[in-house]
Amino acid sequence: METSATPTHCPYCALQCGMNLTPAPDGGVEVTERADFPVNRGALCGKGRTAPAVLSSRVRLTSPLVRSRDGALRPAGWGEALDRVAEGLSRARVVHGPDACGVFGGGGLTNEKAYALGKFARIVLGTSQIDYNGRFCMSSAAAAGNAAFGLDRGLPFPLQDVPRTGCVILVGANPAETMPPSLRYFTELRENGGTLIVVDPRRTKTAEQADLHLAPRPGTDLALALGLLHLVVAEGRTDEDYVRRRTSGWEEARAAAMAHWPEYVERITGVSVPQLRQAVRMFCEPESAMVLTARGPEQQSKGTDTVGAWINLCLATGRAGRPLSGYGCLTGQGNGQGGREHGQKADQLPGYRKLTDPEARRHVAEVWGVDPDSLPGPGRSAYELLDALGTDVRALLLMGSNPVVSAPRAAHVEERLRSLDFLAVSDVVLSETAALADVVLPVAQWAEETGTTTSLEGRVLLRRRALAPPPGVRTDLEVLHELAARLGVEKGFPTDPEEVFDELRRATAGAPADYSGITYRRLAEQNGIFWPCPSGNGPAGSPTGTPTETGTETGTHTRTGTRTDAGTGTGTGIRTDGHPGTPRLFLDRFATGDGRARFAPVSYRAAAEEPDEEYPVLLTTGRVVAQYQSGAQTRRVDELNAAAPGPFVELHPRLAARLGAAEGDPLAVVSRRGRAVAAARITTAIRPDTVFMPFHWPGEGRANTLTNPALDPTSRMPEFKVCAVRLEVVRP
Ligand code: SF4
Questions:
Q1: What's the CA gap between 280 and 282, in Å, rounded?
Q2: Is residue 572 within 8 Å of 496, Cβ to Cβ?
Q3: Which atom number of ligand 1 is nearest to the Cα of residue 15?
Q4: Which of 433, 517, 590, 669 sits in a 20 to 30 Å window from 387, CA-based?
Q5: How far apart are CA 428 and CA 82, in angstroms?
Q6: In whole angstroms, what is the distance from residue 124 CA to residue 40 CA?
Q7: Spatial separation of the C-alpha atoms in residues 135 and 155, rounded to whole Å
């Protein structure tokens, strides 16, 4: 173990707060303040503070488990467990073909693991069937960002810009609960004279801080954005010069918005016309403004169009690609950004290269030492892959995900997992998904291994190993190395994360998400580096000429940063000439072929499932501050469990009165997909036509039993945020 404090980052959300890990008297580590990391400046939420508890949890897996003939999981040696996994995958491939093997990854995996997993799927298994749980997180924002700007990086500017803009519209985002240290950016915004508008069907802790809270009916924020754009045009607030110089497609988008009259939008959304007018005034009057979205608008069957409509609002008012202005997505998972860049996604190769692009295939195949024609094409998206288990896909390797709790229509997904011929899961605890596996592989955690992540700002960060994993545990990279060897690929899967990262740098050289100029050494010396960061002998920026503003982020807005010669070679064949990275994108041009941002010609359409007589109430889902995602880790931490011990149904007093429900009563929530039961929590902070459930728990209170897997046609995002339900009080 290290004897002094190890600077690193939190294992949980995409804010990737900096923290120090200091040796604890019991031989483990404790979290201490790391004030030098500019994003959180020492502040942490309860999850970050208690993260070491999972390292030493009594339910930590420290031995592989294999399913025995009697159906129970029993401890086994690594040799037997890995042999069983190789055999299970191999059998599916031989009997049914390569696409009968599936791989499911996670947005919490480091860049190195995400990269190695994508490579493993494509060159060891030869399968196209790989996707990951990040598809459920930000894929609609990614699709809309790519369509509008030619490039998706969650935030195209650092969080430090937020307090210095004039107005922020936060759409379907609740950072007060999901990433509490980030809330100070919004309070500083208001202290500096800026305004905050929050769009959310619930009066969340974030909405309580807002100057204006708009509470649309779930699933209608597309109409809301169109109504705001209508008013922008009608009130003569369009930035005609910007639209002419820097965008394309305005006439079509404008015509679509003009069909959404404010009174019509009020009827759809429930947001009054005066509130719409007030929002337009607040957004348009300052010199700069931002729109930031999160899962609210994104997790819909029209998520791409909804985000596109919010981007349209930014473009029509000249609020994108300008200092202190722009559109951004608050990505959720710890490596939600990096996880989507390096090959876990069904249609992408490392660096955000497209799997269908012959030049991208050639470049990556060369790095991998394989024939480009041997690389499979795009596969199914996450839900479609889970839905195909047991039919087209017969064996699955799953890393860093718990879809039994986190996938939509979860009972069906659980049934599909049970129907597999073979399931292998690597995890740190026996999650609800791992409990279904034929083989469970116990792996190292964040503080026990080094690796990189990419935060919601596009800032690549180094997580450092602070202590050794417990005996009996291996790293995911070691697992992939061993499996590749057993499946006939002896080389190409190193176990040293830095070696994997150096290969990733080569694979991403010249790509949209270019990491080739980033090294572990530079990351150790700096507080992260924003991509794109090309190397000395790689093309600068993307093939389309990613417009960049380079600079080291110091907390002040500088258009040109300092180039620091932080390295001239690493023995990997590419130079690192100290490109400083790119905190801000698009200031000169967008990453589209002609450099112009593209308007999305979108119109409102209803949710896939609207209330009716049988299911008269809307359900929306989300998170609470003390739990993280499927709760696989945080439900094992006593302090967090005490703060958030179980599921609940939030409902308005008027709805409670109609049902005859009192606070704490068990409520059955029933959708077309199943039934969940949780305690009633009665509050005026929610619309009377809507109920809210957090999704962190399995079993009877599992919110995702109810959610609708209707997919967005572009992003393939399921509609987690809105479905129709009925409610009944459960009487003893
Ligand atoms: Fe960790 Fe996110 Fe909490 Fe920061 S806000 S401590 S990154 S969970």
A1: 5
A2: no
A3: 7
A4: 669
A5: 16
A6: 40
A7: 18
What lies within 8 Å, CB to CB, of 332 at 6+ separation is: 13, 14, 107, 137, 138, 178, 294, 295, 629
Which of 10, 177, 456 gets mutated to test ligand 1 (max ligand atoms within 8 A of its CB)? 10
CB 520 within 8 A of CB 462: yes
Q: Are 488 and 327 in contact, with CB atoms under 8 Å apart? A: no
The one-letter code for the residue type at 283 is F
Q: 617-729 sits in which CATH class? A: mainly beta
330 lines ligand 1 (CB under 6 A): no
CB atoms closer than 10 angstroms to residue 65: 22
**Integer Cα distance of 119 and 114 in angstroms:** 9
Q: DSSP secondary structure string, 58-72?
A: TTB--S-EEE-TTS-
Q: What is the pLDDT of residues 155-212, one digit of tens each?
A: 999 999 999 999 999 999 999 999 999 999 999 999 999 999 999 999 999 999 999 9
Residue 10 alpha carbon, nearest atom of ligand 1: 1
Nearest CA to ligand 1 atom 4: 17
- What six digits make up the tokens of 253? 């988008």
For ligand 1, is residue 181 a contact (CB within 6 Å)?
yes
- Ligand 1 pocket, 17 CB below 6 A? yes
Mutate to test the pocket of ligand 1, among 16, 17, 624, 629 (most ligand atoms within 8 A of CB): 17
Phi then psi for residue 290, to 5 deg, are -135, 155
Place of tokens 């305690």: 679
Rounded Cα–Cα distance for residues 379 and 362 (Å): 19
- The residue whose CA has the least distance to atom 6 of ligand 1 is 48
CATH number of 78-136+335-446+470-515: 3.40.50.740
Q: Estimate the share of the chain in helix, then strand, then coil, as percent rounded to the nearest 5.
A: 35, 20, 45
Is ipTM > 0.95 here? yes
Rg of the chain over CA atoms, in angstroms? Answer: 24
CATH of 143-330, one of 3.40.228.10, 3.40.50.1970, 3.30.70.270, 3.40.630.10: 3.40.228.10
For ligand 1, atom 2, which residue shows the shortest CA distance?
Answer: 13
The tens digit of pLDDT for each residue in 585-630 reads: 999 999 999 999 999 999 999 999 999 999 999 999 999 999 999 8
